[in-house]
Amino acid sequence: MSKLFPCTVALAITGAASAQTTPPPLAFNVHTGVDSLILPAFATGPAPYGLASFVVPPDIFGTGGSEVPPDTAAAFAIIDDASIIPGIDQDIPGFDLVLVVNVTPFQLEGVGFGFGQAFADLTDFNGGMPAANGLLPPGGLYLTLISEQDTRDITFTLDTPAGVEQRFTFSQASLIDAPPARAAFIPIPAPAAAGAFAAAGLVAARRRR
Question: 160-179: per-residue pLDDT in tens?
């Protein structure tokens, strides 16, 4: 696994070895509105955000996922120490890891989030040519980074089965502190959408867990 952040390279100068720190790779982050560090954790290659190539450990939200309330559609979480996540395996100085997790057995649509005035649907970085789709597959994990100094409010969206956007806005201070994550649990859209999800078996499936 290549290291993410400032690494040391040896340069030969008049027969002696000297150390020089190389800057970390950056790219514009559609969810924060500023440049963000590149992560190597995506199936499509290094990117500042995207769908992870691995599954989030269930104990991120408590033992066996016990902290996840019934009838939750997605969990939005911020983790201080990214080294606990397989596929990252190291802390990232100055940054927190942002996770969006589909905790249902069905694909979620219209999923998007942002900090402050920045907002975007879930997006494929696509080698620097971003393409938004807002799709989060069953058990899917979407990752990005945010500065530890960034305290802006969070906006999160999720479509109902009928395609109606549900919008949630919350502060970082309001996130449930259940170490190692600070999390918000996005409910299955209700009340009108609950019947549609139930018809698809989603509500019943979540309650059986």
Answer: 888 889 999 999 999 988 78
DSSP-assigned states of every residue in 44-62: T-SBSEEEBSSPPPGGGGS
**Angle 59-84-123 (CA atoms, 0-180°, nearest 5)?**
90
Parallel, antiparallel or unpaired: strands 72-79 and 120-121: unpaired
The bridge status of strand 176-178 relative to strand 131-132 is: unpaired
- E-assigned strand segments in 68-193: 72-79, 95-102, 112-115, 120-121, 123-124, 131-132, 141-147, 154-159, 165-170, 176-178, 181-187
The structure tokens 């789709």 sit at 133
Owner of token pair 């939005």: 76
| pLDDT tens by residue, 26-39 | 999 999 999 999 98
pTM of the prediction?
Answer: 0.79
Those residues of the chain that have pLDDT short of 70 are: 1-23, 58, 62-66, 190-209
**Alpha-carbon distance 122 to 51, whole Å?**
8
CA distance 73 to 103: 6
